[in-house]
Specification:
This is Trimethylamine-N-oxide reductase. Pfam families: Molybdopterin, Molybdopterin_N, Molydop_binding. One of its GO terms (molecular function) is molybdopterin cofactor binding. By secondary structure, the chain is of the alpha/beta class. The protein folds into four domains: about 45 residues, no CATH class; about 260 residues, 3-Layer(aba) Sandwich (Rossmann fold); about 240 residues, Dimethylsulfoxide Reductase, domain 2 (3-Layer(aba) Sandwich); about 140 residues, Barwin-like endoglucanases (Beta Barrel), CATH 2.40.40. The strands form eight sheets. It has a seven-stranded mixed beta sheet. Strands 26-28-27-30-25-29 form a six-stranded mixed beta sheet. A five-stranded parallel beta sheet has the order 11-10-9-13-14, covered by helices on one side. A hairpin with a 4-residue loop joins strand 27 and strand 28. Helix 11 runs antiparallel to helix 14. The chain is globular and about 75 Å long. The chain starts with 6 loop residues before the first strand and ends with a strand. Bound molecules: ligand MGD (2 copies) and molybdenum atom. The site of one ligand MGD has 35 residues, from helix 18 and strand 19.
Length: about 800
Amino acid sequence: MSITRRSFLKGVATTSAVSVMGPSLLVSNSAKAAETSGTWKVSGSHWGAFRAHIYGGKVQAVKPLSEIDKHPTDMLNGIRGILYSPSRVRYPMVRLDWLKKHKFSGDTRGNNRFVRVTWDEALDLFYRELELVQKEYGPSGLMAGQTGWNQTGLFHNCTAHMQRAVGMHGNFIKKVGDYSTGAGQTIMPYVLGSTEVYAQGTSWSEIIANSDNIVLWATDPVKNLQVGWNCETHESYAYLEQLKEKIAKGEINVLSVDPVKNKTQRYFQNDHMYINPQTDVAFMLAVAHVLYNEDLYDKEFIKTYCIGFEEFIAYVQGQTKDNVEKTPEWAAAICGVSADQIRDFARMLVSGRTQLLFGWCIQRQEHGEQPYWMGAVIAAMVGQIGLPGGGISYGHHYSSIGVPSTGFAGPGAFPRNLDTGSKPKWDNNDFKGFSSVIPVARWVDSILEPGKKIRYNGADVTLPDFKMVVISGNNPWHHHQDRNRMKQAFRKLHTVVTIEFTWTATCRFSDIVLPACTQWERNDIDVYGSYSNRGLVAMHRLVDPLFQSKTDFQIMTELTERFGRADEYTRGMTEMEWLRSLYAECKKTNAGKFEMPEFDEFWEKSVLDFGTGKPWVRHADFRRDPEINPLGTPSGFIEISSRKIGRYGYEHCQEHPMWFEKTERSHGGPGSDKYPYWLQSCHPDKRLHSQMCDSEEFRATYAVQGREPVYINPQDAKAKGIKDGDLVRVYNDRGQLLAGAVLSDSYPRGVIRIEEGAWYGPMSEKDGALCTYGDPNNLTLDVGSSELAQATSANTCIVEFEKFTGKVPPVLSFGGPIEVM
Ligand SMILES: Nc1nc2c(c(=O)[nH]1)N[C@H]1C(S)=C(S)[C@@H](COP(=O)(O)OP(=O)(O)OC[C@H]3O[C@@H](n4cnc5c(=O)[nH]c(N)nc54)[C@H](O)[C@@H]3O)O[C@H]1N2
Ligand SMILES: Nc1nc2c(c(=O)[nH]1)N[C@H]1C(S)=C(S)[C@@H](COP(=O)(O)OP(=O)(O)OC[C@H]3O[C@@H](n4cnc5c(=O)[nH]c(N)nc54)[C@H](O)[C@@H]3O)O[C@H]1N2
Ligand SMILES: [Mo]
């Protein structure tokens, strides 16, 4: 890292008078009026760093940190609406029926009737419940393991705060894996030796300079790079711009394989191949068939770097398993791409340097392990893994993967676990024969079928029998599948505690709700650029915590006081002392490599900028010498077949990639007679999951008649008498919802989209539990991807829809609880 790149951002002062910032500021007239005084402060978020104008104790306006962020996301306009949301959790609240009937009140959970209590009352109740569950059931009775997209900031990671505090009291059930990449992160270590999904990828500059062909396979980087795990810099967009230019000039061939024309394809205006949903593996097997039978594949690469090709190719040739030859004609009938197009595609792959870029949605479906494994097999047959602009990536749509890393080592975070040597108050490790760790997406199965044995990644898991759930930093009533099934499960629970700043459906289905503040009501530090490690950003408290909300740190300190562990929990440090200590540790680690000023100077400047790192090529070292740099697979080579997986004896993940029919599938697949449409619940363009859905003005920019949009092909709509802007009822055997029709040619016939994260707002059960806003997880299927990963299968989902003609109900998702006096 050259010393010249290490520069501090000049003039990003935190509390400078507004006049210093110049006149060319913001938007609305009210914001303009407020500019005459007040201060500007820098903070961060998943959506990027920004300056906020604070006047009269309120955030009046937000604008991007344009010195670094040249491609800020529109979603910055939703931030004020999060702070000042009418759905903010204002006070500690307890569910009325639970107060009266305690563990026998599950049948009315979700009726949203709450009473206000004091902080002391609420925390006493929380503590009482922790005591009860440990006494009566032990650690297998408590689930506190779910994680999610808590706000940015390394110190205030709310899930870490909750888990450390609750963990000091007693042990609990934890999870493994996540909803994002559950299938991918489990299969890929067997195939390429790492999760691949969370690994740094070949630099964009190398791809743009060297690729002749790029295949965008189920990926939408233009939409999905708007947000980052840490504070996002949006550096990837500069590369996407370069790529767009090259496409326009015909210098690079970019082809998308996707059931819909997504935002990236609309931006690039590149070639697009429609494929039937959930059928990529059939398509890919036929591609392998062509590469093999036309002798186009790289035999040398397969021999030097791979194992298990023979078993796999025997299956492709129809000599094993189902004895069906995986010809282009066979695949065409399933995937909807013609046999000739499949042949052309295979020939294109070997016509020059070809980079495959996969997204994640394709593995969030039944048998989601298979397309990822099969993608690696195709890349191996093409023989360019480890070359600049060749091979395969599983992450270029995510958090600045592909932007070179500077090598700066970011600060540590608040510890999630107990300090070494420390024991919980209830020092009990007896999980009564239940598993203490479960695959993340199977937690609702646990509530419904405790004691059931399932198979998972080479092990047996006994689903635990938990009675109490503590939730912080995730929103299961958005993220999990099949609402009506969840409702059945939640009835069985004795106690649900949620720590939140906004009244999500998860709050509605809880018994105790504790008001946290947002990240803009506390001080923190964060890495700037999740994978690029561009620098460090100071997150200044913009305003004091609203209503009675407190920081998660404060809440958990007060909880641990109740069992005499607060000093240990906080290590005797305040918020600012923690920030200083994390910073000091980071400065020490980077000494000699990256110059960091004293904390106070950093805090005033707000941003440390270490520039851009050196370009890099994934798997280049393995290619150079597979003996010295083996992969992390059992053999050290690319495993086209895996003995280890074969030995597990699973039905839906066998020793090499295979085509498996889905439980339900549109386009002539199972169930499509009754429910002919595929519902894809992709990630939202104007939200981060459910976050920002309650941001009112911003929601109004995309909602249709106040409802979540459902994107429909114009001919499909016409056939049902649906016009743009109509209300539509979407349904299947699992549930139903209302959404607002947006007609678009980007969607082929037979495919509709409702973005995940739309807030759940159900009518009563006697009214059919119709969701009044449009949460797609009313309709999705809740089964494990396979015995290997047991991951979510959210995108295995078929539906029917019609124009809504009934009495239009109000939207019930927003605005908090019904407060009972
Ligand atoms: N149908 C369908 N379902 C899906 C997906 C899909 O593609 N289709 N995608 C899945 C994927 S990939 C993911 S990652 C999950 C995401 O699922 P989640 O991570 O559960 O989704 P978020 O909406 O980000 O929920 C985070 C919650 O934490 C709260 N929160 C944030 N910060 C703080 C904090 O500092 N303190 C406290 N106390 N609370 C905080 C927010 O207000 C919000 O309610 O959804 C999954 N669900
Ligand atoms: N704006 C925004 N960005 C985000 C997020 C967000 O909530 N909002 N969430 C972040 C998170 S947590 C995650 S996990 C990632 C999610 O990243 P992904 O899961 O990759 O994103 P999606 O947008 O759900 O899907 C990407 C593409 O896959 C296509 N696709 C779906 N099924 C199939 C299929 O069967 N075959 C083929 N060929 N294509 C298919 C879809 O049509 C879509 O164009 O995004 C991250 N980025
Ligand atoms: Mo995710």
